[in-house]
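Structure ticket #2291
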Amino acid sequence: MKRLLTVGFIAAYLGTLNYGILCHMLGFGTGSHPLMYFIVWDMFCGWSAYDSRAHVIAEGESQTYYDVANPPWGEFHPWGEVGRQHYDVLNNHTARIGFNTLRHTQHEPITRLFVIEETWAKKYNIPESAWQARYDGPKDVQKYYRVRSIVLPDGTVSETVGPWLAYQASQMLGDNPRLQLQASKSRTLFLMDHERPGREMLINPGTGGAYPGAPSSPVGAPLGN
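Resolution: structure written out below.
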């Protein structure tokens, strides 16, 4: 009896894993149930060498900017020390966090709301002692700021772009003739690039920020003009 139970458990375990691999390979039912997360073979393929944070900035009629991602009642941390606005990688609901702060605070009339993505290489997150043991020079943190979306006070999205990594991937494809040739031979390719190159892509060498003021300012206090 014990042998039969052991064989049955192994067969069920391997069968479940094979089912998850087939669902991932065929793109069938990968999100049909929360338990699919544990058997679909794509749990860690989304990791990146870059870290990112989201900042929600409101612009008043006086062209004063306010940090509305951190409400007066405290920032919500669903896990660890990272605020909830940083978990919305697809930028589907980040602006709503800013509008919730505006609804419950006193402020001048708001003209626009910006969702700004801050990105930097994860290697700069290591402690200073580990950095000195691995690299010869000091840390020179290169941070990239990108306007992900501009939202009007009524909730209308007037402008939206993809994440910084997707933008860099499209640039890499456009600058590499070999990749262009491979893409043209494999399948039809449509480049949906709505980004305006240059002005919304700012490089901050660690000197303060690419938009007026610092996002760590308290809610209700102007970030600058």
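Closing remark: The two ends are 77 Å apart (CA to CA).
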